[in-house]
Amino acid sequence: MSRARKKKLLAEAAAPEFLRALRTFYHGRPGDLFTSARFYWPAGSGLRQSIATHFLAKRRPAGADSLVDTAAKVEVLLPADVPEDYTDPDFLVASYMARLPVEETSAFAQLTMSFPDATNLHGPWEAARSWLRDYYVERLGVPVVAILHAPFLAESASPVHLHALVLLRKATAFGWLSTRRDLAGDSGLEAAAASWQAWPMR
To answer: For a Cys staple, 28 with which of 35, 42, 64, 120, CB 3.0–4.6 Å?
Structure first.
């Protein structure tokens, strides 16, 4: 293949219309107190759409063009030995995408926990955060970005809810290790739902 042809193919692959867009498979129904979703890329060649756009949209519900997070709370939950740099959600996502194998199609899992009876924000936050840290971070070694939304601040009738964006690779002091695709599969999401239902602080 000629050098010019190779250059053209590389340019086409980098063009936005050739990006493999994130796709989603949802579990649960609107109104459920616990719902989940598997985010993935279709198999094929070419660059993958970054997960950063989705993460920013959750962190900035008032508008992705905001320069700061507008969610009620945003926190990266990490294993204790992971470097401090990874507590920055932008750095975490960029590192995750940069080191994800080129053939990988599993992106991340998203959990949503709703609290229609909440009378404050710290109660739901601490309940969900403690479970996420125990179940995903300490037992499984994967990072989670926890994001609390308070729709009443925008005069919405939607309940207080928390999104947990679960990355699918173990994070350690030595970097990213094996991919846990099962965490975003049917059985993995069902196991998470059962664990949350049994969580005593819920």
So the answer is: 35
* Residue 14 belongs to some domain of the structure: no
In a domain, residue 82? The reply is yes
Sequence-distant (≥ 6) Cβ neighbours of residue 190 within 8 angstroms: 27
Domain count within the chain: 1
Q: What CATH code is carried by the domain that includes residue 120?
A: 3.30.930.30
| Of 189, 28, 176, 35, the residue nearest 113 (C-alpha) | 35
Half-sphere exposure of 51 (CA within 13 A, CB side): 28
pLDDT at 64: 67
**pTM, full prediction:** 0.89
- What's the whole-number mean pLDDT along residues 67-81? 96
Residue, of 13 and 82, whose pLDDT is higher: 82
Pairwise CA distance, residues 166 & 174, whole Å:
20
pLDDT tens by residue, 125-158: 999 999 999 999 999 999 999 999 999 998 999 9
Query: Domain range spanning residue 127?
Result: 19-198
In a domain, 72, yes or no: yes
Give, for 132, the enclosing helix (H) or strand (E): helix 122-132
Paired tokens of 125: 């936050």
Bridge partners (DSSP) of residue 175 are 172
Select from 53, 129, 142 the least CA-distant residue to 94: 53
Residue 111, SS3 per DSSP: strand
Is 89 a residue whose pLDDT tops 60? Answer: yes
Q: Classify residue 11: in a domain, yes or no.
A: no
